[in-house]
Amino acid sequence: MTIAAPRTASGTTNTHDPCDDDCGIRDVLDRLGDRWSVLVVVELTKGTRRFHELHRAIPGISQRMLTLTTRRLMRDGMVQRTVYPTIPPQTDYRLTTMGRSFSAAIASLADWSRQHKSAIASSREQWDADRPARNDL
Amino acid sequence: MTIAAPRTASGTTNTHDPCDDDCGIRDVLDRLGDRWSVLVVVELTKGTRRFHELHRAIPGISQRMLTLTTRRLMRDGMVQRTVYPTIPPQTDYRLTTMGRSFSAAIASLADWSRQHKSAIASSREQWDADRPARNDL
DNA sequence: CTGAATCCCCACGGATACTG
DNA sequence: CAGTATCCGTGGGGATTCAG
Fold first, then answer.
1. What does the pLDDT look like over A110-119, one tens digit per residue?
2. Residue numbers in A 75-94, CB below 7 Å of strand D
3. Bridge partner list, B95
4. How far is CA B49 from CA A36, A91, A94, B134, in A?
5. Helices A97-130 & A37-45, crossing angle to 10 degrees?
């Protein structure tokens, strides 16, 4: 997502530091935000994967985005890359200790998601049925 | 984010259904993905809030995005809105039961985020220091 | 005070072609 | 195999204005 720092420096003088609420969460949210990071992490939870293995395991991801996603996860210290200078080349991706810790954190969220999937879906249906004409959100 | 369903129907016949991994998580990820949903939910965890209270509590959010975010959260059944037809008008936002459940789920993620904030930051510094010329990711 | 409507920028990300 | 480079469409979201 690449959230630029709050630009206007909050004109209304806030009594409590907003950083108490969101600061720090941003770092994680920026990873969850893009389309692929979580999927890559989940796939790597199953074990070490090569580039094309990740590519096959994650339907729809382009080579470009797989490269960008792994790079960003490496930068955040979630993923470790090992290159074997063979011919043809081989590179292994695996979760770091922090990466596994992160995957555990999102696993609970995934559980919640599965448990409430139908409830969310029905809530949306209800909403959409009640206002068919509106094209907001 | 509005993730379109996996388009190519996985040309390479995958042995295991990719939907086992991501399906269902998407619904939640689409909420976490945007810049503001989580912040709004976290703020509402503290209690019922009026529109301008949310606006002040969440630095940087525009009126437009606050409206869109609350609407989407309402559609997902996370937030309930109460309008008092006074003059000037007053509207209260509060979490539903599912909304509170959701906030509990992301609370653990927020904890993880705070605990690893410095580790992530230092990892990024390390990365950026090692390759100053690269402008990827 | 609580929005709705409009304009518009730009970052995310897909498609494609090229390289070691 | 494992990327890199380039072009380009789409939509998320900021700024601003109008309305009840």
1. 889 989 999 9
2. 81, 83, 88-91
3. B79
4. 34, 51, 44, 45
5. 130
Structure tokens at B129: 């220091």
Please answer whether residues A123 and B126 qualify as being in contact, where contact means their C-beta atoms are separated by less than 8 angstroms: no
Residue B95, by phi and psi: left (phi above 0), alpha (psi -120 to 50) or beta?
A: beta
SS (H, E, C) chain A: CCCCCCCCCCCCCCCCCHHHCCCCHHHHHHHHHCCCHHHHHHHHHCCCEEHHHHHHHCCCCCHHHHHHHHHHHHHCCCEEEEEECCCCCEEEEEECHHHHHHHHHHHHHHHHHHHHHHHHHHHHHHHHHHCCCCCCC
* Token pair of B25 as six digits: 């998580």
Average of pLDDT values for B16-28?
58
Which residues of B, range 68-97, sit inside 8 Å of A by Cβ? 68, 71-72, 74-77
Q: Is the pLDDT of residue A58 over 80?
A: yes
User: Could you tell me which of B48, B68, B94, B25 has the C-alpha nearest to residue A39?
Assistant: B25
Residue B18 has pLDDT above 70, yes or no: no
What's the pLDDT tens digit per position in A8-54? 333 333 333 444 445 567 888 888 888 899 999 999 999 999 999 99
Best mutation target, B1, B58, B66, B75, to test chain A (most A CBs within 10 A): B75
